[in-house]
Structure formats: structure tokens, C-alpha cells
Amino acid sequence: MSDQIKLTREISNDSKHSDLAVELWLDDSKFFDQPISQGIHKIGHTFNEDEAQHQFRIVLKNKQHHHTQIDQDGNIISDTLIDVKKICFDNVNIDIMMYEHARYRHNTNGTGEIADHKFHGHLGCNGEVILDFYTPFYIWLLENM
Fold first, then answer.
1. Are 42 and 83 within 8 A, CB to CB?
2. Which of these, 16, 105, 106, 119, has the minimum number of CB atoms within 10 Å of its CB?
3. Which domains are present in the chain?
């Protein structure tokens, strides 16, 4: 029997829009796919620690032009964002590690080319946040701190 790792995170939507949706993936397995209504959503997933390369992905979908209010000069007045907080592996918060090592791949909702951007904890464009890591998790953590 192999050891298990518990992956937990909080996803929040502070807006009145409830049509944005999030998918969560570990490698090629989707384990969450739901609209994110207003409030904080705690999501957990357990997987085997198997001494292998892994990829954790957070996908934002359904973002539309009406989610962003722009003034006559093209400045953003308000925007609908999904916040990702308290990302933990076995109760070890890796938020700072996500900001340093994850990439946010998107095309600025169709206004640019698909590119990798720095992840700052907010999802404001349809796209995906990608974190590559390996297990044993604690060795990856120590080597990447």
C-alpha cells in the first residue's frame, strides 16, 4: 500500500456572477468541474505518492466580456476574478511555491497569443495554471524552497 497525499485548496468568487467555472486536474484525471458561485469553496483530493512526475492544473472557463466593465478610455473599472488560496499538500501551505513555480497559460481572453504568465493567485482569464512537481512531495518541497 502506498502513502497518500491530500491536496486541498480554497477557491473564492467575490462577485455576483456565478457562471465562471473551474476544473481541477491531477495529471490526466479531472477531479473537479463546477461553476464557482459567490463565496469560498474548499476542495480536497487524495492521490498516491508514487515517486513520479506530476502536473496539477487549475482551469478557468466561461469568462465572457460582460464579466469585465471597461470605461470609454479602455480602462478596467471592475473585473470578475476567481481567487485561489490556501493550496496545501498534506496541510503544508504552498501558496508561495505556486506563485514562484506555477505558470498561468492564457490568451488574455482572446486578445493576444497564448502565452505563459506569472501566477499571482487570481484567475481572470480563461486558461490554466500549471504546477509541475514530483513525489515524494517533501523532497520536491525541500529542493524548491
1. no
2. 16
3. 4-144 (2.60.60.40)
- For residue 1, what pLDDT band results from cuts at 50, 70 and 90? very low
**Secondary structure of residue 132 in the 3-state scheme:** strand
- The number of CA neighbours under 13 Å toward the Cβ of 119 is 28
Q: Which H or E run contains 138? A: helix 137-144
Asked whether 100 and 129 are in contact (CB, 8 A), the reply is no
**pLDDT digits over 49-67, tens only?**
999 999 999 999 999 988 8
**Angstrom distance (rounded) from CA 126 to CA 121:** 14
| Structure letter (DSSP) for residue 106 | E
Find residue 78's DSSP bridge partners. Answer: 69
Counting Cα atoms < 13 Å in the Cβ hemisphere of 112 gives 11
* CB of 68 closer than 8 Å to CB of 110: no
